[in-house]
Design a protein that fits this description.
By secondary structure, this protein is mainly alpha-helical. It is built from six helices and two strands.
């Protein structure tokens, strides 16, 4: 499977490909920006699937997102990645 197609498939259902959100951060096939997109999709799925404001799995997802965001350089006070924060809101 081509990388782009795999990436798109993973974004549709991250839990199918990874046991834990931290596994996304260890996947060397993707850039930090791509990891953020995968984790943002996972977060959206988690938030739409539960009425609870915070579950342990959702916390793992947000922790994984924070870990990736720490590695991304900040330019002019804004993280260098684009669109991820909009997708998380």
């Amino acid at each position: 499977m081509a990388k782009r197609k795999l990436f798109e498939e993973i974004k549709l259902n991250p839990q199918r490909y990874y046991r834990a959100p931290s596994d996304v951060n260890r996947d060397r096939r993707f850039s930090d920006e791509e990891r953020l997109q995968i984790l943002a999709a996972w977060e959206r799925d988690m938030r739409s699937a539960t009425d609870e404001p915070e579950t342990s799995r959702l916390r793992q997802v947000t922790d994984a997102i924070a870990e990736v965001e720490k590695r991304i350089p900040i330019q002019d006070g804004v993280p260098a990645h684009s669109g991820t924060n909009d997708a998380r809101e």
